[in-house]
Structure formats: structure tokens, C-alpha cells
Amino acid sequence: MVLLGALAAIWLGAGVWAVQSGLAMRRAAQHAKGQGDRLANLLQSAPAIPVLIRPDGRIEAPARLASWLGRETSPQYISELTAIDGGLRPSDGEALAADIAAAQRASRGFVRAVQAVGSSRSLLVRGAPAGPELANAGGVIVWIFDATETQARIEQLEQQCANYHDALEALSGLIEVAPLPMWHRTRDARLSLVNSAYVRAVEAEDAAQVINDAIELVEPIDGITPQQAALSIMAEGRPRTRVGPATLHGERRMLEVFEVPLPGESGVAGFAIDRQELESARAEQTRIMATQRDMLDRLSAGVAQFGRDRSLTFWNQPFISLFALDPDHLVGEPPFERVLDRMREAGRIPEHRDFPAWRAERRDWFLSSDPREENWLLADGTHLRVFAQPLPDGGLLMIFEDRTEQVQLSSARDTLLRVRTATFDSLFEGIGVFAADGRLHLWNNRFRKIWDLDEAALAAHPRIDEFMNSNAARLAKPPQASVVRELVRSATVERKQRNGRVIFADGRTFDFAAIPLPDGNALFTMLDVTDSRRIESVLREQNEALEQADKVKTAFLANMSYDLRTPLTSIAGFAEMMKAGYAGKLPTTAREYVDAIMTSTEKLSQMIDTVLDLTQGEAGTLPLERAPVDLAAVARDCAGRCVAAAAEKKIEVVVDIKQSIGRVMGDARRIGQAIDRLLDNAVEYLPAGGRILIHGDGQVQSARLIVSDNGPGMDARAQARAFDRFSHIAERKRSETIGLGLPLAKQLVEAHGGKLTLVSEVGQGTMLTMELPRGDLPRAELPTGGAARG
């Protein structure tokens, strides 16, 4: 019983303990349930949604995830969340799936911003591996935050940042391309940024060199360096401007430097403006104004300049003289109205019934932007031209020109014009004056009658093209109208004198000329040459007939020379045979006759050869050989041939040939013929006891041979006819020659490319000079100097 009682007591105690323990566990379970409900409520109201992704891909998430994704139900698997229709953009779904897979494999967290397709929410996904208390290995806990407002603010800030970046880039580009040197200094006054203009100004390679070497643009001003000035500006906190010298591109310039302190710790920004040109322009303006006033003071016209307040600031001496003003009255810059009053008191302005109104109108010139010009006629007959030019600064420049003499000259000119018109009308030539624009300006009666026009047609001042087109039918060749028009245009535009001839349809012929005039116009003259043209035509026909007769004469002489040569050869041959005794021994008288026949035939043969050579030379068919000719030897041979004839008249022949005469390319026989003719001419005309000198010398390009005598000489008339073949044949009294020696010699010399000249004076003798070119002689053949005398 005791044992049973003990067991019952133990069982009862155990039951009491079990009941108490159950009640405690119930209370704990209820508390845990309350805690879980509170936590669930907290999660439901939290700004983020937790999502547990198990290793097999299943998802545990609150129901409100569906509304965030814009779905009707929450996704149950990760494949549903990242699918195309899972609620996220396809690109975001693929990226999120890759992030989750990487977190499962590598146990690393991730953060990604995604966009829900079915709603306007922007979501921020933070993922990390889940602990073992939440899921087995490979589980991932994902927190999804509603970042719509945050993302919008981020996008707004990003846009503002992009805008600021673009503005900064634009500003940097503007600073870089600015033509002004610009820079930035840090808080310690060191250069941190310079533009290209700064680099070019200091002639550095790039901005890095400027910053590293601390190359300053401006030199110290008043002992203050640019760094000290920058520190002072930052300390004061206000901009500063200073002017100082600098060396830009190797040239000294004056710069105006502007530096501005930047907010906070940003330092100082500055730029420089080149003031050298401005200062030079100001100095130049001052100099120009001084020069202008000096020039105005030297003008003969009266000049007065008024300032913007209408006070007199400048006048010259002619102004005082022209208006009889007292200089003391102009001192102190009197106003415009007072100056006009002084001019009126001196009686040097036009009289007007209402002078105040007239003065007020002139005062309004200060307010006008256009220059004014008017003429003043004074009581004493003086004509004044008044020119008023408003000045840019509001002043007025007035110029008073005395045109009294010009008016008088204009009257005299009108008189001269009337005289000129009367003179033009009395001229035999037709005269028309065309202006620079081609219009007919003046004409005389002869011009009008030539073209058979009335005064009204000419008074319309037609242009030259209209005038010629309307009168082309009056010409024998209407196209010639364009020639006349072009000549007038050439005289007015190109300033060239041209002339020509035009034939009218009625047979009249006019020589015309277009002459440029100093005033830019063109004078067109027409002279009737109908009669002189007819005379000219008759003379031309006669000249052609004479030329034809001369050709016939030349042909006759050539034929006659050939025809006479055959019987002359026979006579000479038979005479030689008779002299040789082929016909038997001749008596003395017969032998003298035969000698006379042979002498005459030889002279006649020479004359025939001379005529034939002249004829061939004139026709250009004279045969010449081309070979080196020793002129010294040829001259001596010719001198030897004339010694006998000279000895008969006791004439002395002297030969003085220099070695420099050398050789020429030519025909030795023809050159000898020319020298013979010169010597024969000298012997023929030289009286007994005379002297003939043959002198020869030469240069590199030519050789010269002179035949001179101390004979009676020739007058001007004889010299003019010396080389004429037939002009003095009828006057010659000698029967031995027909005077063709000099003409033939001239032709022979000219056939060699040389020239034959004659110098003579009555009582002083005659000198004939033959000059021959060397031709294409070898260089070794050229003369080297020295002399040879024979």
C-alpha cells in the first residue's frame, strides 16, 4: 500500500507537472504566434518585400509582390519571375536570372535595378545567399525595394549632371578656342589651366609645359608678380583689372588683365585683352585729328567746326577773312547762333525777311544725319557754296567755298562754247563728239549733212550703236557700221586712237578717225576724200603700168645680153684667129685694126656682163659660190689689175691691208668684181696726179674694205644718184662706160649680206666703204690681229 501510495503520489506529481508544463508551452506558443503575426504585419508594411528562393527554384514571397510586378498572382518559381511575361523587362529578367544563379553558385550578393512592365514602378533588387535557418545550401534571399521615387530622382540628377557636363564641355571648348589668353589659378596662385591662346602667346609647346614651367603671360606690374596679385584678389574677394606689358609672339604689347575670384576654394580665373591696337588706334586718331585740323587750316576755303553742344571748337584763317570776323569774338567757344549773328552783323550772309526762322533751320542741321549743301549769294555779289556735314559725335563741320571766280569762269566758258560751236560749224570736216557712255554729245553742220539727218534726230543724243545701226543702209557695205562703232568704243574705253575709211552707197568716200579726248570723250572726224581717192586710183594705175614696163625692160636687157654675147664671142674669136695668122700674115695696119677690134669686143663683153649681173641681181638670181675668201689676196689682185690704167694717168695706188681683215664666206670672183668696179670708178673720175688708197681691216663679226681718193668729190645730188643704174647715163660724155660700176658693186656686196656706203664732199674726195659679214667661217679662220701692207 505504501508502495502504491508512493507510486500514486509520483504519478499525481507528474500529472501536475505535465499540466503546468503544457500550460507554459501554450502560453509560449501563443506568444510566439503573436510575435509571428506582428513580424508578418511588419513585413507587409515594410518598404521592401523579402523573397526566398530555394535551391529547387521555388519562391516564397508575400502576395503584394504581384501588385509590384503588375501581375495578378505572385510568381511561384524563379523561371516565372524572369520569364518574358514574368512582369520584368526581358533584359532585366535575363540579368536578374544570371545574378541569382551566380549567388547560388558562388554565394555572393548582388544589387540590380529593374523595371516592372505591368506597372510604373522602378525596383531595386538586393540579393544574398540565404542562411541555413531559412533554406538549404543554394537558397537565396532577395529583398525587393520600391525605388520609383529614388530612381526618378537619380535620373533627374543624372540628367542635371549630363547637362552640367555638356555645359562644362561647351564652356571648355569656348575657352579653348577663344582668341584671348585665359587661365585658372588654384588657391595657392599656381596655374592649373590655360587655353591655346595662352600657349601661343607665350610660345610654348603645349599647356602642360606652361603649367609645369609656370610660364607667366604678364610681367610684374609695379613690382607685383601675377601670383601676388592673384592671392590679393582671393583675399579681397572682388575682381581686379590691371594693365601691364607682355611679350606676345616675340613682340612687346600692352595687355589689360581681368582676374575674378571664384566661389569657395576654386581659385582665380583670368583673361587678357590686347590693348596695343586700341592704344595705337587712339594715338592714330589723335594724330589724324591733328593732321586733319592742320590740313583744314591750310585750305583756301573757310572751315568752322562745332561740337555736340553747338559751340565753335575750330576755325581757320580763311573763315575769319571770308566773313570779316574779329578773332576775339570767336574765343571762348561761342554758340552756333552767336556765330551766325556775328556773320550777319558783318553783312556776310544772305538777307532774309525772317532771320530767326532762317537761323533755326540751320540749327536743325545738327540733328540731321545727311549732309546739307546750299549756295549763298551775298549783297556784294560774292557766291558762296556752303557744305554742312554732321559729325558722328553730334557736332557739325561747315565748309564755305568762295565760288565767285568759278561763276565768272562758267560765264566765260559759256561764251567759249558758243565760239567753239560757231567754229565747228564752219569746218570742212564733219565732227562729232561722243561721250564716255557712247552717246553723241556735240556735232557740227557738216557732220549732220554728211549723214543727211535733221537736227531733232541728233538732239536726242543717240548712242553710237543706235546711230550706226539706223544709218548702216547709207553705207556701201552696211557691215562697216560695226567697224565704226568699235573704233569709237576703243577711243572712249581703251583710250586708243583709231582711223579708217568708209564708202557711202552714193559713191562718196570718207576718211574717219576716232581720237580720245582728255576729258574721257572721243572726237570722231570725217573728211571727204572722194576726189583724192579718184586721183589716187589713177596714180596707182599709172604706177602699176610703170612697174610692168620696168619688168619688160629688165627682161629685155637680160635677153639682149644673152643675144649679144653669141655674135660678140664670134667676133672676138675670129679676131684672135686673124691676129694669130690663121688667115695669113697681116700687114701692120691690119694688125692695128685687129687689136682695136679685140679691145672693143673685150670692153663690150664687160659691159654685157655688167648688165647681165645687174639684171640677175635685181631678179634675185645672181649665182654665188660660198667658200672662204682671203680678202687681202683678192684686194691686192684687184689693185694689181688697175695699176696699168692708173699709171697712164699718173695716179698713185696705195694698198694698206691689215691682217685683221681675215676671211669671209662668199664668192671670190664676185667680191673681186665689186672691188674692180670701185677702183675703176676712182681711176675714171680722178684727175692726173691723184692718189687712191685701198685700206682693209676687220672685226670678229665683219670685215671692212675702203677705197678712197683725193679727187674732186661729189655734191649731194650726185651722191643721191650714185647707185642709180640709169639716172645719169644720158648726162655722161664718156663713151668707154655707161656708169654701171657703182650700182653693180652695191648689188654684189648686198648679195653677200653686206653693205656699201659712200661719203664724199666737193673738193675733198670720195670714200667708198664695203662691209662684209664673216658668215659661217670655222672658228680657226677668225682674225687674230696684226697688219699686212702692200
UniProtKB/TrEMBL annotation:
Coiled coil regions in record: 147-174
Entry-linked Gene3D superfamilies: 1.10.287.130, Histidine kinase-like ATPase, C-terminal domain (3.30.565.10), PAS domain (3.30.450.20)
CDD domains, per the entry: HATPase, HisKA
Keyword field: Coiled coil, Kinase, Phosphoprotein, Transferase, Two-component regulatory system
Catalytic activity: ATP + protein L-histidine = ADP + protein N-phospho-L-histidine
GO molecular function ontology, one term from the record: phosphorelay sensor kinase activity
InterPro entries: HATPase_C_sf, HATPase_dom, His_kinase_dom, HisK_dim/P_dom, HisK_dim/P_sf, PAS-like_dom_sf, Sensor_HK_Regulatory, Sig_transdc_His_kin-like_C
Superkingdom, taxonomy of origin: Bacteria
Residues in Histidine kinase domain copies: 559-776
Alphabetical list of PANTHER family matching this protein: HISTIDINE KINASE 1 (PTHR43711:SF1), TWO-COMPONENT HISTIDINE KINASE (PTHR43711)
Name of the protein in its database record: histidine kinase
